[in-house]
Amino acid sequence: MYTVPMSGTRWLSQEEQQTWRSFLGACLAFFTALDAQLQRDAGMPHAYYEILVRLSETPDRAMRMSQLAEAAAASKSRASHAVARLEERGWVRRVDCPTDRRGQIAQLTDAGYAALAAAAAGHVEQVRRSLFDLLADEQVKQLREISEAMTRDGQPAPLAAAACMTACTGEDEPAVEA
């Protein structure tokens, strides 16, 4: 096992090292599968899908660009670039913030919502194949508990921003699951 001597460093045990590498590999395989499915079936990367989902879950399907970046776990510049690509497709539009001249709001268009709705079933099926179908019910519960432990107590978490969002679905508008 490779170690670099350094006083005070709490090195990983052999089991922790194996767990860490398995976790990294699992995350990479999972997100690669999600991205490949969305690219193949919907012509968009997972990052764009996540932005569309976040917008679809807010009142008026709109949110400030800075909040969208936080909710989608992206830097402001990465979110701005993604929104620009989504604007080119007609799926999102930017409007000036009425209360802050410096701010902009990203708003999901009807075409963007339709693209999201069309992509959702395939995406959910891929999530099932790549995650839930591989786990027993108890493991699903454990995964949730582990994930919640990893994102509480001030840890950066994309879902922290989602707490300030409220779902907004009308009776004529089906909810789209992430």
The number of helical runs is: 7
Q: Nearest-angstrom radius of gyration?
A: 19 Å
Shape annotation? globular
CATH class label: Mainly Alpha
CATH level-two architecture: Orthogonal Bundle
Tell me about this structure.
It is a single chain. The chain has a single domain, classed as Arc Repressor Mutant, subunit A. It contains seven helices and three strands, in the order ααβααββααα. It has helices spanning 14-42, 46-56, 65-71, 76-88, 110-130, 137-151, 158-162, and strands at 62-64, 92-96, 104-108. The chain has a three-stranded antiparallel β-sheet with strand order 1-3-2. Helix 3 (65-71) crosses helix 4 (76-88). Residues 156-178 have low confidence and may be disordered.
Question: In summary, what is this structure?
Answer:
The protein has 178 residues and is mainly alpha-helical. The protein has helices at residues 14-42, 46-56, 65-71, 76-88, 110-130, 137-151, 158-162, and strands spanning 62-64, 92-96, 104-108. The protein has a single domain, classed as Orthogonal Bundle (Arc Repressor Mutant, subunit A).
